[in-house]
Amino acid sequence: MTQDQLINSTVTYVKQELAQAEGGHDWWHIHRVWHTAKEIAAREPVNPLIVSLGALLHDIADAKFHGGDETIGPAKARQFLESQGVGEDIITHVIAIIENISFKGGHNEGKFSSPELAVVQDADRLDAIGAIGIARAFNYGGFKNRALYDPAIPPDLQMSREQYKNSTAPTINHFYEKLLLLKDKMNTTTGKELAAERHAFMETFLEQFYKEWH
User: Fold this and answer.
1) What is the C-alpha to C-alpha distance for residues 39 and 65, in angstroms, rounded to an integer?
2) Of 44, 132, 135, 214, which is least packed with CB atoms within 10 Å of its CB?
3) How far apart are alpha carbons 147 and 20 in whole angstroms?
4) Which residues of 13-40 are buried (b: 16+ CB within 10 A; e: fewer)?
């Protein structure tokens, strides 16, 4: 199997698996992250195959849609890659990306690092901010039946990893607990450049939101 055939098979698999996914974590999220990752990777000394596979499979079974179980995604990715005859060295690297990409309330232990993880992580974080990031945040908030905003519930910037995973706070709080923090957590020069504009847009949105609210 050629690399192009493997990528095409992976695309088909991911589309099937995420056919009924929540709108902020569906195939189009994967598609955006994949293409952004390829854009960043073009300027970085990375293995493009690992970047593509990591981007395509990074949310194959997001833990928040599986009762918080963080083992399902890596297991499904491994099973798929093994079925395609992918070498163990590549599988291990892709699984490590899946296991270490998430923000987790700022409590990412950093047990693994690689240039490929840095690229895919930046691409995933870029999709969490800016106009699309705002849309995704409110889409997920609606999916979970959360309030848009409640002045009586301030953002909690001291949450533990478990508290972050189980939070039911209003969607606006998520901007302060995650989205506005991502600009300064970008790994690559390209990621930082792309994040700056999206971050500014979120600040403008929040300013307008509060203006209208009050």
Assistant:
1) 29
2) 214
3) 24
4) bbeebbeebbebbbbebbbbbbebbeeb
Question: What pLDDT score does 104 carry?
Answer: 67
Give the side-chain half-sphere CA count within 13 A for 95.
19
- pLDDT for the residue numbered 107: 54
pLDDT digits (tens, 9 = 90+) for 126-136: 999 999 999 99
Return the pLDDT at 66: 83
Q: Which amino acid is at 112?
A: F
**For residues 189 and 138, what is the distance between their CA atoms, to the nearest angstrom?**
29
Q: How far apart are CA 18 and CA 66, in angstroms?
A: 13
Q: Which residues of the chain have pLDDT under 50?
A: none
Spell out the domains of the chain, with CATH numbers in brackets.
3-213 (1.10.3210.50)
Closest CA to 9 of 49, 47, 36, 38: 49
Q: Does pTM surpass 0.85?
A: yes
Numbers of helices and strands, H then E, in the chain:
10, 0
**Both tokens of residue 2?**
């050629």
pLDDT at position 140: 96
Rounded-to-integer distance, Cα 209 and Cα 207, Å? 5
Q: What percent of the chain is modeled with pLDDT above 90?
A: 85
In angstroms, the CA 57 to CA 61 distance is 9
Q: Which pLDDT score is estimated for 65?
A: 84
* Spatial distance between the Cα atoms of 51 and 10, rounded to a whole number of angstroms: 13
